[in-house]
Amino acid sequence: MAGLRSGAAAGRRRLRGHLALLISALLTWCVRCAESAKASNVVLILADDQDVQLGGMTPMKKTKALVGDAGATFVNAVITPLCCPSRSSILTGRYPHNHEVRNNSLSGNCSSPLWQKGPEAEAFPIYLSKNKYQTFFAGKYLNQYGKKDAGDVDHVPPGWDQWHLQYYNYTLSVNGKEEKHGDSYEKDYLTDLILNRSLHFLDDRSPQHPFFLLLSPPAPHSPWTAAPQYQKEFSNVKAPRDGSFNKPGKDKHWLLRQPVNPMSNTSLTFLDNAYRKRWQTLLSVDDMVEILVKKLESIKELDNTYIFYMSDNGYHTGQFSLPIDKRQLYEFDIRIPLMVRGPGIKPNQTLQAPVLNIDLAPTILDISGVNLSLVNVDGQSFLSQMAPSLRNGTARPLFLIEYNGEGQPTTDPACPKLGPGLSQCFPDCVCEDAYNNTYACVRTLDRQQNLQYCEFADSESFVEVYNLTSDPHQLENIVKKVDPAILQVMNQRLIKLQSCVGDNSTCADWTMCLCVCTVNLLSFKVSVVQKHSICQM
């Protein structure tokens, strides 16, 4: 009997041991399942005023290799050509006529109390935070942020766990507390400071939850302060002289007709210097991307992280004899670099489908697992374009570009002959913006068409039309050569886009397409060859 009891006890011990091993294995499996089920991380690097049409990505060899070559490059990424309206669209996924940020001024709703109570309270970081994302922002936010009339530095938008925000005169709002900085490169160079604080955030994060980082360096925006080690780079570089460089703005809106042509030598020297310094500042951003990618790899998060690299708007240096700025409806101002790498995205992809700044928010929310039908956005996720194995989707054949001009109520002392209502004026009496530099454009961009139709809100009711297939630099306004029936169709489509609200409306309802047209590339004559009932506007 004693032997039987002894054998039974040994059997129970073995069973308990097996159960312990099984439980341990199950716990390990559950932990691994939980880790694999964790939503993907997202990093968005948002440059300031970086063009793509004039060689703006040339200095950024590391970024192209580590993000573009490792994933997808979108060659038709388009935005609103000014910082605050564009950044507001990135944050909300809405066109400017829906988030109501018109320009960079407080009166234009840039970071205003109205913005803070409305669109900012519905921006995509709030949804990420609700989905247990750890969120971090460092760098430039919206132009009027930090002003007393915009809530001062105490204001921290909802949805952000860590907030390191630059505002005027280089003071940071660190989670709502003022932090002043000087001019020491080691302590204060903003691009490096943004990077270093993001690295600390990654070290301190909780590995159990995904993270979202938005890094917004000041480069290559003026005053173009390069790091000391890069201040002698590109000494022989000049702004590109091809395309529309130093060309008169013939047959264009009056603001483009007023610059002196050809440009003066002082203007050429000035813009060449600005072009060179812009490239110098981008070298530090290139370093930022490289260090961040290496950090993600070292903490074993790189393979589960989507990295977006883009700019808030394009830029020009001498195009149509305008010295330097953005704000115009032309390719150099509305096109930006956009590259993405991440899970499910095959390397070395070049994607042609148009992507807008209003598409960033729904794409990031799509990655995070948010039900997009519950979010009020005008854009659409482009995750399906990058990773078709993860999502199905449709391309956008047409879209809206809109801008509200900025001006001053008094005459600029440098340009008394032009009168009041202008802004961004240069010593040679060339002004880059005005109240009536207010326009809206409908753009068709697919394999059949590359057309742009724009209407100005001015006393002339000025219209510009371009066939970019035959005229990629937009040198000739063909409005007088186009079939009036096509102009009417474009006008009606523009009206509908200007009033669209939400992804389920005409903002993204491509069943209401433009009529199928053919374009004679030699004569610029456009004729309707097919009309469906849906086109009867």
From TrEMBL:
GO cellular component: lysosome
Pfam hit, one: Sulfatase
UniProt keyword terms in alphabetical order: Calcium, Glycoprotein, Hydrolase, Lysosome, Metal-binding, Signal
CDD domains xrefs: G6S
EC number: 3.1.6.14
Cofactor(s) for this UniProt protein: Ca(2+)
Residue span, Sulfatase N-terminal domain: 40-370
Post-translational modification (record): The conversion to 3-oxoalanine (also known as C-formylglycine, FGly), of a serine or cysteine residue in prokaryotes and of a cysteine residue in eukaryotes, is critical for catalytic activity.
Reaction catalyzed: Hydrolysis of the 6-sulfate groups of the N-acetyl-D-glucosamine 6-sulfate units of heparan sulfate and keratan sulfate
GO function terms (MF aspect): glycosaminoglycan binding; metal ion binding; N-acetylglucosamine-6-sulfatase activity
Compartment list: Lysosome
Domain of life from the UniProt record: Eukaryota
Annotated signal sequence range: 1-33
Modification 3-oxoalanine (Cys) occurs at: C83
Gene Ontology biological-process entries: glycosaminoglycan metabolic process
Similarity comment text for this entry: Belongs to the sulfatase family.
Annotated protein name in UniProt: N-acetylglucosamine-6-sulfatase
Lineage: Eukaryota, Metazoa, Chordata, Craniata, Vertebrata
